[in-house]
Amino acid sequence: MYNFDYLRPASLAEAVEAMKGEDAQAISGGQTLIPTLKARLASPSVLVDLSGLAELKGVSREGDKLAIGAATRHADVAGSEAVRSAIPALAALAGNIGDPAVRNRGTLGGSVANNDPAACYPSAALALGATIHTSAGRAIAADDFFLGMFETALEEGELVTRVDFPIPTAANYQKFEQPASRFALVGVFVARFPGGARVAITGACEGGVSRWDAAEAALSSDFSAGAVTGMAFPADALIGDIHGTPAYRANLIGVLTRRAVQACG
């Protein structure tokens, strides 16, 4: 690790001001940043700790959506009665991230802002049509927020403050885990709304979390596993590595999508 200054602001306003410093980096759960610092792959001059900001924590139901603060930990999302009753698929997703140590430190906002190509939360945000709120007062649709591997629409120094998830009529997340990391080798989140279905894929696509337009069209006409039977995600758009070829991942996408639809009931 390189030397850095550590700041623990008492309010979001103080955090925003601190982020104006040269090479300032926000930290909340630190599940990605700390290993990155240890490996000397990042060298911020200032770490701005958001973990003590109560205004960035908590879950509330506001009409037809769930509002979840960016500093809300995975374990708190998983255990929230509001999440379990409104979007049980989201609670189940959070409860299966990493291990207990990760779930009790990692945060929703950190996962969304980091946009790891195998992370679970971005698929939920994309499939549910979430809105990401930022410290700059912007409300960014998930479709416009995730731009590629580890790339988002956040500007320099801008922080995620809250994520609003529309409540679907049904949803389910299926994850085929890479057993060592428990990241998604392939993850598929399916959400059904009165206006149609949305399908998001994580862990598989070269450009990071992505929607499967063809499956969405089929499921919007006929929300059944049969509607996507025989459909295949284009393998040439998928990752190939020691854990699975593009063809292997393409097959998993189809299998997990059908399972998610069946689980929606």
TrEMBL record:
Keywords: FAD, Flavoprotein, Oxidoreductase
Matching SMART domains: CO_deh_flav_C
A GO molecular function held by the record: FAD binding
Domain called FAD-binding PCMH-type: residue spans: 1-170
Pfam families xrefs: FAD_binding_5
Keyword Transferase attached: no
Protein name per its UniProtKB record: Carbon-monoxide dehydrogenase medium subunit
UniProt organism field: Albimonas donghaensis
